[in-house]
Specification:
The chain contains three helices and no strands. By secondary structure, the chain is mostly helical. The longest helix has 26 residues. The relative contact order is 0.16.
Length: about 80
Amino acid sequence: MDVLKAQLQGNKQELLVNIVKVEAVITFALVICSFVVAATANAGFNCVLTAFLNVAFVGGSYYVLKNSKAPIAVRS
């Protein structure tokens, strides 16, 4: 619990990057599951498309957070 409090009181940008890293792990599992479901007639394409869009969102989020020069405003 102390580690979580220290993370919340510390650098907010690093906290957001860590949250995006956790989301990337979950997105990886979604991509694997979408490839399994891809053969299904009605849901296959939609599932794979959703997985790829989620990968693009996580990648874009990580890129913006790592390359932003101005501090990101997060109020606590």
